[in-house]
Design brief:
335 residues, alpha/beta, Rossmann fold, six-stranded parallel sheet, 12 strands, 36% helix, 18% strand
């Protein structure tokens, strides 16, 4: 039976330990050995100790949150995400609750509970990456809330861009930029090295819109063309584009679209028609282009804000409902 009159001080006196040790043990801190932690928690259950919810101290609460970031072998892929926007969004979304972020690379995710100086972990955020199932399982066993940003988790909490909406809006704006009565001949260029989940979602949305509008391709490659790496988008590749019927080309991301534009600009004298080119992610470097580009902002700041709100719901309010959201971006036209 729970007893609200039993306090941490009572437990400390009963077990002849400090209140700090009792508090850390009740919060599963790695600063306390497993044997001592188990003894304290067992005695707390015997006496019916009732933990106070953090909710009552929202103004003064400081959450210790592990932020797991992607470890990229390809440096150029780090150009897409402004982590300062994400962090600012998290802190604003958490409102009055102070959030202390401790960062790890995805290759270091197994250290979430290993580093003793890290203290108690209130929640874990996986930003733009996924880790192995054993880590998620350990978080569940320790009852630590965790959230994935830009990656889905089956049955788990996540915040992802609304890819269906983004691709649909992108194609709608791009088709309006084609000359009147021009038949739409779309092509999507995907990159073999891009994260499979992200790429599959964009490819699926693209094909669905093409099917709805009855857009087709005469070439053998169909509506999707895959390249091994960015350097594969060279003069030879562009000549194939120039000799095809495609006039509306979507790069799987802004890097692919930019690589295509650079090669097309070198072949300006050979161009027989205007091309409408789109990308995705709204990477900062697109403003350096000398050719119009249509892209979709992922709204990283908004994802951060909703992450901060998630922290208040899962840690402060102790809500158990699954939290899964899709954030709509917006089409940006770079002239």
């Amino acid at each position: 039976m729970k007893n609200s009159k039993i306090t941490i001080s009572n437990l400390a006196k009963d077990l002849e330990l400090s209140t700090a040790t009792i508090s850390r043990a009740l919060n599963d801190s790695s600063l306390i050995s497993e044997s001592v932690r188990s003894r304290i928690q067992a005695r707390a259950r015997e006496l019916g100790y009732l933990a106070r919810t953090v909710k009552k101290q929202r103004d003064r609460a400081i959450l210790n949150v592990k932020l797991v970031l992607p470890h990229r072998n390809q440096p150029e892929l780090q150009l897409f995400y402004d982590l300062s926007e994400l962090i600012q969004g998290i802190r604003e979304g958490a409102d009055k609750v102070r959030v202390q972020l401790v960062t790890l690379l995805e290759s270091e995710a197994h250290q979430i509970f290993d580093h003793k100086k890290g203290g108690h972990v209130d929640a874990v955020i996986f930003a733009f990456c996924k880790v192995g199932k054993p880590i998620y399982q350990e978080l569940k066993e320790k009852n630590v809330p965790y959230l994935s940003i830009n990656r889905t988790l089956q049955g788990g909490d996540f915040i992802v861009p609304d890819t269906d909406f983004g691709i649909r809006e992108l194609l709608e704006v791009m088709t309006k930029s084609l000359p009147d009565k021009t038949q739409v001949r779309p092509l999507m260029i995907k990159l073999k090295t891009i994260t499979k989940e992200v790429q599959s979602a964009r490819e699926k949305a693209f094909l669905e819109v093409c099917a709805e509008n009855k857009w087709s391709a005469k070439s053998e490659s169909g509506l999707i063309l895959e390249v091994d790496q960015l350097t594969s988008i060279d003069d030879t590749f562009v000549n194939k584009i120039l000799n095809s019927e495609f006039n509306l080309i979507v790069g799987m991301n802004d890097l692919v679209a930019t690589s295509l534009i650079q090669c097309l600009l070198h072949a300006t004298s050979k161009m027989k028609r205007a091309y409408v080119i789109g990308g995705y992610d709204y990477a900062p470097f697109v403003h350096l282009l000398r050719h119009p580009l249509y892209t979709v902002s992922m709204n990283v700041k908004k994802m951060g804000e909703r992450t901060g709100f998630w922290l208040t719901q899962k840690v402060m309010e102790r809500k158990q409902e699954v939290f899964q959201e899709k954030i709509r971006g917006k089409v940006v036209v770079i002239e």
